[in-house]
Design brief:
- The complex is a heterotrimer.
- Chain A is α/β, with parallel strands linked by helices.
- Chain A is 45% helix and 21% strand.
- Chain A has 14 helices and 15 strands.
- In chain A, the strands form 4 sheets. In chain A, strands 8-7-9-10-11-14-15 form a 7-stranded mixed β-sheet, sandwiched between helices.
- The longest helix of chain A has 19 residues.
- Chain A is elongated, with a radius of gyration of 21 Å.
- By secondary structure, chain B is mainly α.
- Chain B has one domain.
- Chain B starts with a helix and ends with a helix.
- By secondary structure, chain C is mainly alpha-helical.
- Chain C has one domain: ABC transporter involved in vitamin B12 uptake, BtuC (Orthogonal Bundle).
- Chain C has a two-stranded antiparallel ribbon with strand order 1-2.
- In chain C, α3 runs antiparallel to α8 and α10 crosses α11.
- Classes of the chains: A alpha/beta, B mainly alpha, C mainly alpha.
- Chains in contact: A-B, A-C, B-C.
- At the A-C interface, α1, α2, β8, α9 and α10 of A face α1, α2, α4, β2 and α10 of C.
Chain lengths: 399, 311, 288
């Protein structure tokens, strides 16, 4: 574990800054970025969003910039902290569009902030390749905002594939029928729990414990104790970062005896594996990647070198892929935003995740849905149309 | 109620200023319009806040509670009711909620009221989240055709209403009573003023206005979730802007809101990585060097020139 | 029984969060909104010491305490003393200190963000089960609880037995009269403020063994601490402890018996209820 990510980041940025400064004369592409650096979602954005942006800018500029109409153009990154406040996101996008005259704007972080920004991206004609915006409303949204694209999947897919994974385990005789399901009482957790419940029942599971807990709960032991008392075979939590850690620790302490243990957001964070070590083995979580793919390994190495921290095993690579898509589109059709949006709709892109093409709802239909910690690595165990799915292992105790 | 010459002059000037503000969307600059929305939003919130807190010296941190309730009214009702109706409903709910809170708490003094209102915002947020969770409701999407200019005009209308209300209160018996309460509550009570009723009535104003502001702004946020709608930081921002301007005058908060918005804007544009730090420093400078807000600064400047003239 | 113990353990956590603020607010009359940032900073130090030097948080606190004490002493002397001198009334000091410490909390977040980044920091320390009366509890929580008992006990004894402690209590009760009987109010206020900061930072170091923190989470703890302090009665150690335990037990009981989704709502209802019927807090005395 590197203890000085910040210093590394600073030096990398200064380097990137001087590089851009020297080239910033006429031929730069101004790329705007707005995401939380402070506030409730800052912890997630610092792991998932910002490092990939810095990495991408650094790599593009180190390679001499993007080729636009035969000319090499360096990237100038203009960044804003929206403080996890939709009002600030809106202001920052407006400023990027009208004052900074950014050529392109990287989509914000989080479902709520992406949606708050969507009307502005739409009005100014910017393509919005959203990553961390998981919703079932993609058809409605892309209908209303035709330049909005989705890369990380839908709520229902996330829930359905977990149900699928558990069903497969049951069919194989590894898992009983009893499921304890809890969720964080915030939009994301509520949406997922609501989507998952009928799916579990349909698949013939019995929900033996079901509850929610507020965001920011400091002691989750009643939740785990309540779940353990119901003697489930599988524990599923639609959780957010601080409680993903809290639930896992309590589960360890209670030594909850389940064959499948699932926590959602932040399970793929490197700090999760770092904190729980061998005890994390077998834990299921939202997302996943194919860690054996050379493209991902190369990306993870560069990520580590530039920012001093490892990428997470889910949205980090997707964020990077969304930037690759943007870069490829710019190189193909130039700085005309309308043309870039059209290009996005029509083309199949080669990315760190493999090929990505958007469907008629501007959605990327190929994404990871369920992953699992196996020997210190978080591997994808279920996906929609992605290669390299690993077999699921049983959760075997907490030692 | 009669208007003096200077009253008339002020009215005309205010109407003129309002007219100019209303033309902002026609300038075609989305950036300035966006800033205009922010300024209008905080002017409505801070001015109504000061209407109550200026005379009574109670610091209310309940703005986020009312605001959040307002956004939820729009979020829940946008598919079945017209927008303007929702704003009205939000205002009514905000006023009723404020009246209930006022009845229960306005006999508490000072710091207890501060913490109570803060706790209230969290309580409302928890209850709404829990209800939403148990009714299995998904995230609320507010998809409308209303654009930024529309929202801006609605807010501007609300700001106007707030100023008119404030002006009328200032001229009414209620306003007179409040000034006495602000000077000395015991004296007020002895002179036959129903202090509790006056305070509750007045507290309904910021409650209603904050809820209406939330209702108006909901379409701008598109997606409503509790952690964003009830963010406690909003309550603090309103207090700070109002105090920076000065809560003792009707126009005080306005002169706080405008520079503060531009300051925040400049900071976040120039120091994207240190904006929190720089805002903190700016904040301390204000506290230490502008103790009575801009109104205090102006008043002092005016008295000085006044003295000079007399001399 | 299980609920009671879990609740009491949680109450210990809350006492760690709130007891420092009680000193700062009760004695120095500063409603310190930057309290949570001090707590998170303490947690950061423990995290860094543990990850890079494998230093147990139980040892780190001996480093954290003097550092936080010095820092808070400085903050009080340089930043807050002028406000105290300037304020004509208690109300004005309250407004000023709310604004000033609010600004400081921003600075705190900004500094931590600059030095450590915005990532979550979490590590596993003593996350092993401990059997108590037939149920299991996290050993780290039990340790933190024991430390909370030690800290609160020491504070209580110090405030009630030592001369400085008595003077501090005198200030908390009647600052104006305290000055008349020859108590150095300024020096002791600074002492109380610094001590409060040190206790908070130590609490942060202990809490970081089982809660996941990041640079922006301070405000969550500030809010909780304020509620507990007000609930217990300003300037009374006993009140804060009772309020913290009560809150812990109620939250756990609601979570276990009713619905975990209502824990925080129940906490606020309890708080608002106490405020309505005993506005001076559980142990507070009505002041004029």
């Amino acid at each position: 574990m590197n203890r000085r990510p910040f210093l590394k980041l600073v030096s990398a940025l200064t380097l990137a800054g001087t590089l851009t400064a020297t080239a910033a004369s006429a031929d730069t592409i101004r790329i705007g970025a707005v995401a939380p650096k402070t506030g409730g979602l800052a912890g997630g954005a610092t792991v998932t969003q910002w490092p990939s942006i810095y990495l991408w800018v650094d790599q593009v500029n180190a390679a001499g910039g993007l080729t636009v109409d035969g000319e090499q153009m360096m990237i100038e990154l203009i960044e804003y902290d929206d403080q996890t406040n939709p009002g600030e996101t809106i202001k920052a996008v407006q400023r990027l569009a009208t004052q900074d005259e950014a050529h392109f704007i990287i989509a914000p972080y989080g479902t709520g902030l992406n949606l708050a920004a969507a009307p502005l991206f739409d009005r100014y004609g910017y393509p919005q390749i959203a990553v961390s915006a998981i919703t079932d409303q993609q058809p409605e949204l892309s209908d209303k905002f035709p330049n909005m694209f989705f890369t990380l999947g839908t709520t229902t897919a996330l829930a359905a594939d977990l149900v699928g994974v558990l069903t497969d385990m049951r069919e194989a005789g590894d898992l009983g029928n009893r499921v304890a399901m809890v969720n964080v009482a915030d939009a994301f957790g509520i949406e997922l729990a609501t989507a998952a419940k009928p799916l579990f029942l349909e698949a013939g599971f019995e929900l033996v414990y079901e509850t929610s807990y507020p965001l920011g709960t400091q002691d989750l032991s009643p939740v785990i104790k309540g779940a353990a008392a119901a003697e489930p075979d599988a524990f599923v939590a639609w959780s957010y970062p601080p409680d993903t850690f809290g639930l896992t620790e309590q589960a360890m302490i209670e030594d909850i005896d389940v064959q499948a243990f699932y926590t959602a957001v932040a399970t793929p964070f490197p700090s999760y594996g770092g904190r729980f070590g061998a005890a994390a083995d077998g834990v299921l979580g939202a997302g996943g990647v194919n860690p054996d793919s050379p493209a991902f390994q190369e990306y993870a190495k560069a990520h580590m070198e530039l920012t001093g921290a490892a990428p997470d095993y889910w949205a980090s690579a997707t964020t990077y892929a969304s930037l690759e898509i943007l870069a490829q589109s710019i190189e193909a059709v130039g700085l005309d935003r309308e043309a870039v949006s059209d290009h996005l709709r029509e083309t199949t892109f080669e990315t760190v995740l493999g090929p990505i093409a958007f469907d008629e709802n501007n959605s990327n239909p190929a994404f990871w849905t369920v992953g699992q910690w196996q020997d210190g690595v978080f591997v994808g165990v279920a996906s929609r149309g992605r290669d390299g799915t690993a077999p699921v292992i049983l959760k075997d105790g907490w030692k | 109620m009669s208007l003096t010459g200077s009253d008339l002059r002020n009215l005309v000037l205010a109407a003129l200023a309002l007219g100019i503000c209303a033309l902002l969307p026609l300038s075609g600059s989305g950036y300035w319009l966006g800033l205009g929305v922010t300024i209008a939003m905080f002017t409505a919130l801070a001015t109504s806040w000061a209407l109550f807190s200026g005379p009574t010296h109670y610091i209310s941190l309940a703005t986020a509670a009312f605001f959040g309730v307002g956004t939820y009214v729009t979020g829940l009702g946008i598919d079945s009711l017209p927008y303007w109706g929702l704003i009205g409903i939000a205002g009514a709910i905000g006023a009723v909620l404020a009246a209930l809170v006022g009845l229960a708490t306005l006999r508490l003094s000072g710091v207890y009221f501060v913490i109570f209102t803060l706790g209230l915002a969290e309580l409302v947020r928890q209850v709404i989240t829990w209800v939403q969770n148990n009714s299995g409701q998904k995230g609320l999407y507010v998809l409308t055709d209303l654009d930024e200019a529309g929202i801006y005009w609605w807010l501007l209308g609300l700001v106007t209403a707030v100023f008119v209300t404030g002006w009328l209160i200032g001229r009414s018996r209620l306003g007179f009573a409040l000034r006495i309460i602000g000077d000395d509550e015991t004296v007020a009570a002895h002179s036959g003023i129903n202090t509790a009723r006056a305070k509750v009535l007045l507290f309904m104003v910021p409650g209603a206005v904050a809820a209406m502001t939330g209702a108006i702004l909901a379409p701008r946020y598109v997606y409503i979730e509790p952690s964003l709608a009830f963010a406690p930081i909003l309550s603090f921002q309103v207090v700070i802007m109002a105090l920076l301007g000065g809560a003792s005058r009707l126009w005080g908060p306005l002169v706080g809101v405008i520079p503060f918005t531009f300051l925040l804007e400049a900071v976040s544009a120039n120091f994207p990585n240190q904006s929190t730090l720089v805002i903190g420093v700016a904040f301390l400078i204000i506290v230490y060097f502008l103790p009575n807000g801009f109104v205090g600064l102006l008043d002092r400047a005016l008295t000085r020139t006044g003295h000079r003239r007399e001399a | 029984m299980d609920i009671l113990i879990t609740g009491i353990l949680l109450g210990g956590t809350y006492a760690l969060i709130a007891i420092g603020l009680n000193l700062q607010y009760g004695v120095a009359r500063i409603m310190n909104l930057a309290n949570g940032e001090i707590l998170v900073a303490g947690g950061y130090l423990a995290f860094i010491a543990y990850v890079s030097l494998q230093l147990s948080p139980l040892l780190t606190i001996f480093l954290v305490a003097p550092l936080a004490f010095a820092l808070n002493w400085l903050i009080y002397r340089v930043m807050l003393q002028p406000l105290v001198n300037r304020a004509k009334t208690r109300g004005q000091l309250e407004t000023d200190s709310i604004l000033a410490t609010f600004g400081m909390s921003f600075i705190g977040v900004g500094l931590m963000l600059g030095f450590f980044g915005g990532d979550y920091f979490s590590y596993s320390f003593m996350a092993v089960p401990l059997q108590l009366l037939g149920s299991t509890y996290g050993a780290n929580r039990v340790i933190a609880f024991c430390m909370a008992v030690l800290i609160c006990g020491a504070l209580y004894l110090w405030l009630n037995r030592s001369r400085a402690g008595l003077s501090i209590r005198a200030i908390a009760t009647a600052p104006a009269s305290a000055r008349l009987v020859g108590i150095d109010v300024k020096r002791l206020s600074a002492l109380a403020f610094a001590l409060g900061g040190a206790v908070t930072a130590v609490g942060g170091a202990l809490i970081s063994t089982y809660l996941t923190l990041d640079a922006s989470t301070g405000v969550v703890f500030t809010l909780k601490a304020l509620i507990i302090v007000i609930m217990g009665g300003v300037g009374d150690v006993r009140g804060t402890i009772v309020a913290a335990l009560l809150l812990g037990i109620v939250e756990t009981a609601v979570a276990s018996l009713l619905d975990p989704g209502l824990t925080l709502a129940a906490a606020y209802i309890l708080f608002l209820g106490i405020l309505l019927f005993r506005p001076q807090g559980l142990f507070g005395k009505t002041t004029t």
